[in-house]
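Purpose: get a first structural picture of the assembly so the mutagenesis plan has something to point at.
Setup: two entries, given in the order below. No constraints added.
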Amino acid sequence: MITFQSLQNPRTYAILGTGALGGFYGARLQQAGIEVHFLLRSDYEQVRQQGLTLESPDGNVTLPQVYAYRNVCDMPPCDVVIVALKTTQNHLLPDLLPPVLKDNGVVLVLQNGLGIEVEVAKIVGSDRVVGGLCFLCSNKIAPGHIRHLDYKQITLGDYGIETNGESYSPCGVTERMQQIATDFERAGIPIDCAEDLFIARWKKLVWNIPFNGLSVVLNATTHEMMADDQTRTLAEKLMEEVVLGAAACVRAIDPSSTRAVPPHFIQTMLEYTAKMTPYRTSMKLDYDDRRPLETEAILGNPLRMAKQAGVELPRIEMLYQQLKFLGARNQV
Amino acid sequence: MITFQSLQNPRTYAILGTGALGGFYGARLQQAGIEVHFLLRSDYEQVRQQGLTLESPDGNVTLPQVYAYRNVCDMPPCDVVIVALKTTQNHLLPDLLPPVLKDNGVVLVLQNGLGIEVEVAKIVGSDRVVGGLCFLCSNKIAPGHIRHLDYKQITLGDYGIETNGESYSPCGVTERMQQIATDFERAGIPIDCAEDLFIARWKKLVWNIPFNGLSVVLNATTHEMMADDQTRTLAEKLMEEVVLGAAACVRAIDPSSTRAVPPHFIQTMLEYTAKMTPYRTSMKLDYDDRRPLETEAILGNPLRMAKQAGVELPRIEMLYQQLKFLGARNQV
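Result (structure tokens, whole complex):
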């Protein structure tokens, strides 16, 4: 295990992107007595004056006063900077991250997809990045008003240090991950600490690629997709390609590695999806609200990594191509 | 070349399915002085009383009197029985064909897809089937009222005789094909006589599978699909799989065969599509009008034949699965 410098105690947090996800976790952290600074765009005036409101099955809460900012240059440097924007906004990160990150702080990437930590590492250094995978159903229903529906847990994984140009080497459960976990658990968010962020991200893609992608192309909820034999079979085939892609990428780095998405994981995910409350995926919500789709982070990056590792994933590629067409037309 | 018995001269025609396609060709044949008998369902009363109307860039025509029938048992047995139904109605053929087919007559299958002749051969005998591939843009805009937009040519191919359980052996340009060609050409329809119906059908699938399928999944015209780089690439990949499927099926019958879709055919089809008037494909018209989709004839049958020949076509399979989902939901 690599040893990184500990984070300061108590830790301060910055939330870049106070939407359904950033607003939820940020509000919970502040509610637990942790100092949180929120970056906002369109909701800035509302939140500065009225604070944040959170509806949740765990209990509703109003935070009448929050530290709200429109510009990172006005924010104090923080110990943990949470990237909670959509990945389609990541071209802004080179400007957003440096001013708000403390010298010994870390960036916590709470975004979907693969390869985002690589981009963040280029900005802040590879030793200052932690990844997080959120399992959360939450919507922003009005400015500063978040409705939490279901789930909330996060899987944390340390990005480690890039060595010989290779990224995502497994680096175990680091102390700084545990410190962040402590803060979130204090805020009532269950945390799973993964020893291997790369595999954790591919595992999440096993679900995200088929169900986010097909929900847009087929205009369907998770329930409708699972109820149709053809679509369930297609989802399973797509999942098999994700597992294949993960294996190829791991093999390309180290042919003797045993890192892998476990084979039974596909069936686990299918059973879990069959049982879950029918809902619109995050990509479908983006599509229906005419926001840009996270096609590159969720499908494009894994596809390109797999291709570089020498494996073609024809169904994922086809889904990517369909989403690129539908996403572009949706923005006209 | 196999020699079949000549058809009688002059020949009488039955049209099973007097819609955009059957109505168009039937009206043109009757206009040329050929005896044509039309089977109708919902439009029967209208056509019996008012005849058929055809709008066309080649000239509008009204046929105030046509032989119209609601039941095949009332029709005289004909020399050429044209199947112009949608393939989704083909479960009716065992009842429709025998009463209307003369002892020495042939069935001319003017439908999309693959494997339809095999089904027809089971009903009337494999030596009594000719296939035809129509290149036609035509709509039925009201009962007995057809609007012809563009194209009209037909590629004819004789089905031959099933030997040792094998179907679609190439059997050259037979006399009966030439007789049918003479009638159509007299009616102003250009005819191309193919020596190999199987390859002719796969060639048509090179266009039909990507553009019919994607037009429904992406809700797009041919023009929109060709204007988008991702979709154009996807169409090309799908075309490559069609060519692969054809090759595998030919190889499975005769490993030494040189029958094939020529390699340059994909580029020819892409260029042709880029230049054509933007239009909604037949499957998209069916989808928009909430009719059943011809998914099995156009994608399911070729997929199953290719699978039996030992080749997987992942993109076509995925398109098939997506169309099955969308088609089923469209019928609710």
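Residues 13-195 of chain B form a domain with the Rossmann fold fold (CATH 3.40.50.720).
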